[in-house]
Amino acid sequence: MDTSPGTPHRLDPAGGCPHAANARLLSRAVVAPVVLPGEVEGMAVLGHDALRDFLGHPEVAKGARHFTALREGHIAEGWPLRTFATVRGMTTADGADHRRLRSLVSRAFTARRVEELRPRIEELTESLLEDLGRAAQAGGGLADLRRHFAMPLPMGVISELLGVAAEYRERLHQLSHQVVATDIAPSKAVAANRELVAVLAEIAAAPARRPGDDLTSALIAARDDAGDRLSQEELIGTLVLMIIAGHETTLNLITNAVRALCGHRDQLGLVLKGEASWSDVVEETLRWDAPVSYFPFRYPVRDLTVDGTVIPAGTPVLAGYSAAGRDPAAHGPDADRFDVTRPARPDAVRHLSLGHGAHYCLGAPLARLEACIALERLFTRFPGLDLAVPESELPRHSSFVGNSVRALPVRPTP
Fold first, then answer.
1. Across-strand partners of 33?
2. pLDDT tens digit string along 120-155?
3. Residue 392 belongs to a domain with what CATH number?
4. Residue 134 lies in a domain
5. What torsion do the CA atoms of 259, 264, 267, 269 make, to the nearest 10 degrees?
6. How far apart are CA 169 and CA 87, in angstroms?
7. What long-range pairs does 211-220 form, CB within 8 A, spacing at least 24?
């Protein structure tokens, strides 16, 4: 890769491990020009301090109307990142619209409501550990932890919150995986988005006829209010967001934490001896191997100088969470070391892997709870669990948005 200062970094649509490229980019500047699929020019904010400031800047917007190339008709319908820019929901709303949409779902993710979910998460975790054990027995001692445990846990929890029946869940996972892929062909991207919208509309039809005690019913009630608080397009867009963000991020978090602990048995030993907590593992994993690498998009509403680099108004900007997590300027010279005993940091220099500012992840408390329960129960049941293949042979995500592997073959040794 050409590392001269003015050379844009061409993001690989096939994804791969981001950390080596992040380190090279950070050695040059904390803000980097990038080339997105389709030869779309953009920028990425990589340094921790710069990213924190950028995420909270009052003149940085999320609405697609600020995306100059999209507004001027230069972005094809099948562009693999188009959904990130155009889906109608919290992630593409600003100001009063964002506050309105966020308020409709925030009550489901308060600390009290999340804590009330603990018994159900524990019950589901135990059931999935049984499934993992049976899969290993059937597979000669090997099983895909991602398929049998890390995916169905958060998908099951968010589906129950939304009132999504079990028969839809595997298809929703497949479709959401295609939506976040960055190497997908235009025709497949269009088809996946259309099918996802159709499936979610079908799912929403049931609570529309017979409301229940679930978030989808509450959103439909808001849509049907006389004040028209939520349009049908916003309803489906919110469901898209909840399904994708509600399981993909936690799926990657659990997967990455298991990989990290299996690759650092000394750190696992500290936790099992009580010298560090499972919460410490979750926070260090979020920092060291963020579940989202480059998150699209934000747009300066005017030319904006970030750490000495001008980002022109209307430029699509990626939040470089995986780079910021290993930024030595914020996390010290050993930032690339996985250390569950790393001292707690003040809020100003905590990791940014769940966002910052007005768009901070609403589901952060739920993701943390699910991951802590999952890891504690997994390594209690299978303390000798280890990877079945070397880390270097694990197949990576076909995306530079999600940061994880597509499969995690393990030996779940009792």
1. 43
2. 999 999 999 999 999 999 999 999 999 999 999 999
3. 1.10.630.10
4. yes
5. 100
6. 21
7. 212/163, 214/160, 214/161, 214/162, 214/163, 215/105, 215/108, 215/161, 215/162, 215/163, 215/242, 216/162, 216/163, 216/164, 217/163, 218/104, 218/108, 219/104, 219/105
Residue 4 placed within a domain: no
Cα 398-175-194 angle, rounded to 5 deg: 120
Which residue would you say has higher pLDDT here, 154 or 213?
A: 154
The closest of 264, 400, 317, 353 to 62, measured between CA atoms, is 317
Q: Give the residue numbers spanning the domain of 205.
A: 9-411
What's the pLDDT tens digit per position in 177-204? 898 889 999 999 999 999 999 999 999 8
For residue 2, tell me if it sits in a domain: no
Structural domain includes residue 226: yes
Kindly calculate the radius of gyration of the chain based on its CA atoms and give it in whole angstroms.
Answer: 21
Q: Provide the 10 A C-beta neighbour count for residue 177.
A: 20
CA distances from 238 to 41, 93, 100, 196, 211 (A): 28, 11, 12, 12, 18
Report the alpha-carbon distance of residue 67 to residue 42 in Å, rounded.
Answer: 10
Closest CA to 29 of 250, 273, 306: 306
Q: What is the number of domains present in the chain? A: 1
Residues in the chain, overall count: 414
pTM comes to 0.94
Distance CA 184, CA 207 (A): 33
